[in-house]
Amino acid sequence: MLVLVELELWPNLIKNARNDGVKIAIVNGRVSDGSFRTYRRFRKFLAPTFRRIDLIVAQDEVAANYFRRLSPVPERVKVSGSIKFDGVKTDRNNPATLELAKLAGIRENDVVFLCGSSQEPEEKGALEVYRRLRRDYPSLKLIVVPRHKERFEEVAKLFDASEFQWTRRSSVVEPIDPDSEKSRVILVDVLGELGAWWGLAKIAFVGGSWGNRGGQNMLEPAGYGAAVSFGPNTKNFRTIVDALLRENAAKVVADVDETEAFVKKCLDDPGFAEAMGKAAKELTIRNSGATKRSLSELACLFDA
After folding, report:
1. Where are the strands (E) in the chain, listed by range?
2. 259 near 287, Cβ under 8 Å?
3. What angle do CA 158, 164, 165 make, to 5 degrees?
4. Spatial separation of the C-alpha atoms in residues 48 and 161, rounded to whole Å
């Protein structure tokens, strides 16, 4: 069996696999509005490719409808929900997060505003939000985790140019003094830790959403029950974003001013932030199970 993820249409691969008797399926299928328009324009040429696909398991009914309109065999399209909901961590007291809290000097009463998977100009925006709020809210701490390691030095220069004392994660060997200024602003310039850092966030901004990237996965902070925010450009996570917004479990912030207002609201009204985080966590748990449903559909191909 050949299982393609989201929307990987490789006509030659699919044709050769079919000629060799291989079953072909798409799981966690999604189609952006732009991709649908493109595929629809070439529908006649893509019809043989879609006809060779035995099963399409879509993330939601919107994607399923797009697939049905593109495929000459729409009855092969099923819906599972998004696999991205599965495996999301929800326990803030996991060992990795607790170790980072100790290293970073984060205490239980600290309010961590974490800007994760960030891209230009999101780090600058997060610094500006922190600058505006830091004096009135001494419990506020800022953690920034850029998306790509190639930008670590660029972001470090941005921090150097700021008025703050700050700490590079890569330089931390011994725990930082929780009362020191250096514990208040941290740049995470190492790979592979973001999932654990999200467990410290009470207020989250998920990057890649102010530019044209299409957003990054917002389920990790949602699973931990953070008050989640992101920019307006989240086309890669349309299903998840729609679900979060529908449940009042996230906030869209288009610029620095809106982000500041959101963070300030969370600081002034902890009950608001807690309710938003609780809704996000419950949504994440409630929507798990897409992997199991997808595997069940794949098993039917073997039965057939």
Report:
1. 2-5, 24-29, 55-58, 77-79, 111-118, 140-146, 167-168, 185-187, 203-206, 227-230, 250-252
2. no
3. 105
4. 57
Which amino acid is it at 157? K
Count CB neighbours of 153 within 10 A: 10
User: b vs e for 247-257, b when ≥16 Cβ sit within 10 Å of the residue's Cβ?
Assistant: eebbbbbeebe
DSSP label at 75? G
DSSP state letter for 21: T
Task: Give the number of other CB atoms < 10 A from CB of residue 75.
Answer: 7
φ/ψ of residue 160, rounded to 5? -60, -35
- Please tell me the distance from the alpha carbon of residue 295 to that of residue 3, in angstroms, as a whole number: 11
Per-residue pLDDT tens digits of the chain, which is 304 residues long? 999 998 878 999 999 999 999 999 999 998 888 889 999 999 999 999 999 999 999 998 989 999 999 999 999 999 999 898 998 999 999 999 999 999 999 999 999 999 999 999 999 999 999 999 999 999 999 999 999 999 999 999 999 999 999 999 999 999 999 999 999 999 999 999 999 999 999 999 999 999 888 999 999 999 999 999 999 999 888 889 999 999 999 999 999 999 999 999 999 999 999 999 999 999 999 999 999 999 999 999 887 6
Distance CA 184, CA 176 (A): 10
Question: Domains in the chain and their CATH numbers?
Answer: 2-85+288-303 (3.40.50.11720), 95-285 (3.40.50.2000)
How many Å apart are CA 69 and CA 159, to the nearest integer?
49
Question: How far apart, in whole angstroms, are the C-alpha atoms of residue 220 and residue 199?
Answer: 8
State how far the Cα of 162 lies from the Cα of 101, in Å rounded to an integer.
Answer: 24
Task: Give residue 121's Cα distance to chain centre.
Answer: 18
**Separation CA 295–CA 163 (nearest Å):** 53
